[in-house]
Amino acid sequence: MKGATFGEVFAVKEFRVLFGSFVLLIAGDVVKMLALSVLVYARTGSAGLSAAAYMAGWLPFVVGGLFLLSLADRLAPRALMIAGEVVRAVTCLVLAYADLPVWALLALVLATGLFSPVFMSARTAMLPEVLPGDAFVLGRSVLNVASASAQIVGLAAGGAFLAATGPSGALAVTSALSVVAAVVLRVGLPHRPPRVAREAGRMLSGWSGAVRETLRVNRRLVGDRRVRGLLLAQWLPCVCVAGAEAMVVPYLGGQGQAGMVLAAAAGGMAVSEFVVGRFARPELRERLSLPLAVLLGVPWLGFALAPGIGWASVLAALGAAGLAYQLGLQRRFVDVVPEETRGQAFGLQSAGLMTGQAVGAAVVGALGEAAGPGTAIAVAGGAGVLVALALAGVLRPQALTAEARPSRAG
């Protein structure tokens, strides 16, 4: 099968709109959480509360992913994405200028973040509709590269805005980026109806109905052996690498050098996503899933030898390059998920990934307290290799492609 090209992907106007708004979203979120962390630290002097503020944007994915994802298939995608940008813009302005106490700041971020998985799911589920076939996989690759690049740019820009305007000014800039993204989405995307008609989704009559429907579909998705296998394959190896990355700062003694190692990891991921997505044919891309998943863990084993900043950066870049293994799973995931629950399926994948990364960071962090950061990083890498080998039956393409696609009616 012939692979898609970047020219074919960017020739689609709707993808260009999704791409541009996604870059604004990621960069804005990085600036927002960095500014909030600095704001909390300036008010409290507590490193723990500052770290909690930085992670607060991730935590709602757990609750939102469990209880609200059905909305992604039962509301119009453009309206959901615009609503997400408006909520983010208003939230940033309140954080910047309402002079709320710290507990209220964190509560606001947690409460408004509950719907983040729904907004993100609407965007991701729209990709197969605007980019059919292998173009969808390349589109995911482009967004992954953009995500890594936007995080690096967002951290640099966030630091510059914080130095020039303080945390309130940086939050105001983030609000402006969200307004721009909302306008881009409104002007650039045509209206698309929900994947499930309103009459067919009576759960919209109340929040309790939305929760029940989300739980029902989540059980249905996880109960399908093929979907469950692909979800685990996308979650578990990343849990281990997240734990390893969480130990980079204490490994380097809290020095600014950690930023170089983490930037190298982001760069390794971006390069690998670009190369595998663009130059590997679809069949090869799927065959690479297992070796790349193993690669995800192997370089982190080298931290047992206490490398310096240079070798640590190389090892982190090589390890993160293995994240391209997920590209070989994307088309198979779309094939086994019923179309009418596609939004919720992508939301469940994202929510599980975010949750798993937080758990992995906590577990490896506890190990680092007991055995030292270098040992903890090496153990996380070894666990990643073992997990990848244990999932070999799913990561090999013949395990799932031999089965028939599910009925779209069920």
* CATH level 4 superfamily of the largest domain: MFS general substrate transporter like domains
**Straight-line distance between termini:** 29 Å
Helix content: over 70%
CATH architecture of the largest domain: Up-down Bundle
Main sheet attributes: strand count, strand direction, barrel closure: none
Q: How do the SSEs run, as a string of H and E?
A: HHHHHHHHHHHHHHHHHHHHH
Question: Could you name the ranges where pLDDT drops below 50 across 5 or more consecutive residues?
Answer: 399-410
Strand content: under 5%
Main location: membrane
Membrane topology: Multi-pass membrane protein
Subcellular location: Cell membrane
Domain Major facilitator superfamily (MFS) profile: 194-410
Q: What would you note in describing this structure?
A:
- With 410 residues, this protein is mainly alpha-helical.
- The protein folds into 2 domains: 1-223, Growth Hormone, Chain: A; 224-402, Up-down Bundle (Growth Hormone, Chain: A), CATH 1.20.1250.20.
- Helix content is 78%, strand content 0%.
- The chain has helices spanning 6-10, 13-44, 47-55, 60-67, 71-74, 77-97, 102-113, 116-130, 134-188, 207-223, 225-246, 248-251, 257-279, 282-287, 289-297, 309-321, 327-336, 342-371, 373-390, 392-395, 398-401.
- The two termini are 29 Å apart.
- The model is unreliable at 399-410 (pLDDT under 50).
- Residues 194-410 form the Major facilitator superfamily (MFS) profile domain.
